[in-house]
Amino acid sequence: MDQNLADFRRRIARIEAAHARGFGFEAQGTLGRSHYVKPRRRRPRLIGPLLVVILCGLGLKGALLWQIGAGPYEARVARLAAGEGFDRIGSALLRPDPGSRFVAKSLEEFLASR
């Protein structure tokens, strides 16, 4: 058998094995697939983690509202609102809303039934 033909067949076998493993080849100076298909820039997904943070905050506020009670909880939030700086931000975030009231009411009903 011709030495050049044997060398050619070895190279072809090596390339086919690489293709089977998922590798690809592009010749120098040609417009291959990488020229036409640009990798997309991945945008960070913020909706899922943001939703988890909001739901955890809502659950925490509802649990505090249930544990402390509506009157004392609102008095503590009012004291925070009278403060300065971050206290006002905290009072705005901890102000009871319909979602936290629903969580507190649900906790009350769930634990009363046990």
Gist of the model:
With 114 residues, the protein is mainly alpha-helical. Helix content is 71%, strand content 0%. The protein has 2 domains: 3-36, no CATH class; 47-112, no CATH class.
Global geometry: elongated
Taking the sheet with the most strands, its summary is: none
Number of domains as seen in the coordinates: 2
- pLDDT under 50 segments (min length 5)? none
- Give the end-to-end Cα distance, rounded to a whole number of Å: 87 Å
Helix content: over 70%
Number of strands: 0
Report mean pLDDT, rounded to a whole number.
88
Number of helices: 6
Structural class label: mainly alpha
SSE string, helix = H, strand = E? HHHHHH
Describe this protein's structure:
This protein has two domains: 3-36, no CATH class; 47-112, no CATH class. It has helices at residues 3-20, 33-36, 47-68, 70-82, 86-94, 98-112. It has 114 residues and is mostly helical. Helix content is 71%, strand content 0%. It is built from six helices and no strands. The chain crosses the membrane at residues 46-66. Keywords: Membrane, Transmembrane, Transmembrane helix.
Quickly list its features.
114 residues; mainly alpha; 2 domains; 71% helix
Topology:
Layout: H1 3-20, H2 33-36, H3 47-68, H4 70-82, H5 86-94, H6 98-112
